[in-house]
Amino acid sequence: MIRAAMSLVGLLGALAVVPPASAEGNSDYSVLMISRERLEVASSCEIGIYLNDQLAGRLFQEQSTSFNLPPGPVDVRLRLLPGQMPGCAPGIEDQRSTRLTLQAGQIKKYRIATGHKGLELRQANLGY
């Protein structure tokens, strides 16, 4: 019994020495969230998300994704991807991209929508 009490006291003492984990100190990155809601884009084709001209994610209807990115500017381009769904063959490529400037510790959420010039990002509420 005394041995168990001593080990408990030793364990509590060791825990007092370890600093608590904190997410506030690790804000050297930003979070970019992109969602695709069914009502915004009527196509059943897969949408590719390109960050700085590199394919970084793919979204079907009612999916979302997030990226941990370093602070600074990032170019985001959206494109319908060819796939197994009928009518998803590539057509004329839209080369427009949206430049976002992210700050350290910032969380930004966007949703994919269809505008006059094709697919676009619209800022959304975080919903917390």
UniProtKB/TrEMBL annotation:
Extent of the signal sequence: 1-23
Organism per entry: Pseudomonas soli
Keywords: Signal
Protein name: 3-isopropylmalate dehydratase
Keyword Signal part of the UniProt annotation: yes
